[in-house]
Design brief:
Length: about 210
């Protein structure tokens, strides 16, 4: 046998053996790690609830444009509050306000509660009254409820914009209502109140 060929054969064999052990070592150290996790997300949810109050329990109240209230000496107008669950989730999310047999300067102040029945802390960002948004610092708007181009009602939003609620906490909301000279006669005035709330760490004060 040619000594040169023998050396090449020996070198080739040694190389094959080295590669074989390298491959076995790689196979021995290769491993797949599988991690299974479960993530439970929270729930952002709130409701409008009672007790719901207004001043319509006897004599009417009247007021002027600066919200000074006084008893009118007669019981003519009336205001009713009807909560509704509009999305079918079991929570009342809209409050219907109905003003009947009112007259200019008839005044009312209503109140209700907002309750956090979700698991995530929330902040009341704004209130929507007849489609108009109330943000902190913009507490009063005029409403044309009859659609005749004339303001019928002046509304003042009371309190708790920016309030933070944890699970099962609640705050009281108050709204003042004043019927204006432009309101039509023999007309029932209605408007809706709803809320916009966001999770507590997404709130940016205006």
């Amino acid at each position: 046998m040619n000594p040169k060929i023998g050396k090449i054969t020996t070198l080739f064999t040694a190389l094959m053996i080295a590669l074989l052990f390298t491959g076995v070592g790689y196979a021995m150290w290769q491993k797949t790690l599988t991690i299974t996790t479960t993530v439970n997300t929270g729930k952002l949810d709130w409701e409008i609830k009672g007790p719901m109050n207004n001043m319509d329990d006897g004599e009417d109240y009247n007021a002027n444009c600066t919200w000074d209230f006084w008893l009118a000496g007669k019981d003519v107008g009336s205001t009713s509050l009807t909560p509704e669950d509009t999305d079918g989730d079991g929570d009342c999310d809209v409050l219907h306000v109905t003003i009947s047999n009112a007259y200019p300067w008839y005044a009312e102040e209503i109140s209700f509660y907002v309750h956090n029945d979700g698991s995530i802390p929330l902040i009341i960002e704004k209130v929507v009254i007849d489609g108009q948004e109330f943000w902190s610092g913009w507490p009063t708007v005029f409403l044309d409820l009859s659609g005749d181009g004339t303001n019928d009602v002046k509304v003042r939003y009371g309190d708790n914009l920016g309030a933070q609620l944890h699970y099962c906490e609640q705050v009281e909301i108050s709204i003042s209502i004043l019927v204006l000279q432009g309101a039509p006669q023999d007309t029932t005035l209605t408007f809706d109140v709803s809320l916009v709330a966001i999770q507590y760490n997404e709130y940016n004060p205006p």
